[in-house]
Amino acid sequence: MKKILIVEDEEGLAHSYKAILRRAKFDAKSVTTVEEALALANYCPELILLDQSLPAGCLQGVEAVPQVRKKFPKMSILSKGCWAFLV
């Protein structure tokens, strides 16, 4: 089963994304910050769905991409906000 990691601080959205992805047979897990995503040692997702606007004081969207790439070098990142784009 392919793994998708959702980085989303809005609980309702994270729950909806997980429900949709699980119905499509993905192993979906969610965290609320990039820091939490980077702390996951054994979860190696194929894709991260990354929110652009996270809580103040946290790594934000595209700013976090270099650190995410360092931790998960082969993974795709889909960054979403008002506009979604693949990085």
TrEMBL record:
The modification 4-aspartylphosphate is found at D51. Keywords: Phosphoprotein. InterPro entries: CheY-like_superfamily, Sig_transdc_resp-reg_receiver. Pfam families: Response_reg. Gene3D superfamilies: 3.40.50.2300. One of its GO terms (biological process) is phosphorelay signal transduction system. Residues 3-87 form the Response regulatory domain. This is Response regulator receiver domain-containing protein.
